[in-house]
Design a protein that fits this description.
138 residues; alpha+beta; Cytidine Deaminase, domain 2; five-stranded mixed beta sheet; 28% helix; globular; binds tetrahydrodeoxyuridine
């Protein structure tokens, strides 16, 4: 089960940091910035935004941008992941991102979905992607 050992203030600080990142998103086509802030099992913080492309299909979501960065820096597991966007409600990650998040998550991983107004909700990977296919099944 997800055990939350973050205070409300810590959560809001992470959300604020993620919201600040939104201005770095490269979104000339959708104008829909998304940002992801990841704290890994070593306590290192990694940042990612969505990066679009004129050939639309090559767009990289914020979540799938930050995870390879974190892996390159030595991450083994995601401890906290904050994802935020300009949605009226906390953002909802796409299916592809849920699958990639799941590869590096366990029952302790805390996923915080947020928006620009600091509205948020807290998820485990199993809530976001139940009965998922993963490394355990190979
Ligand atoms: N996007 C993300 O970055 N993450 C998601 O989970 C949902 C969608 C991006 C992709 C595209 O640049 C824009 O949001 C609109 O779909």
């Amino acid at each position: 089960m997800t055990k939350l050992n973050l205070t409300e203030q810590e959560i809001l600080n992470y959300i604020d940091e993620a919201n600040k990142l939104l201005e770095k998103a490269y979104v000339p086509y959708s104008k829909f910035p998304v940002a992801a802030l990841l704290i890994d099992d070593n306590g290192n913080v990694h940042k990612g935004v969505n990066v679009e492309n004129a050939s639309y299909g090559l767009t990289i979501c914020a979540e799938r941008n930050v995870i390879p960065t974190a892996i390159t820096q030595g991450m083994k597991k995601i401890k906290f992941l904050v994802v935020t966007g300009g949605t009226p409600e906390p953002i909802s990650p796409c299916g592809a991102c849920r699958q990639v998040i799941s590869e590096f998550s366990d029952d302790e991983t805390i996923i915080i979905l947020a928006n620009k107004d600091r509205k948020y909700n807290i998820w485990s990977i199993n809530d976001l992607l139940p009965y998922s296919f993963g490394p355990k099944h190979l």
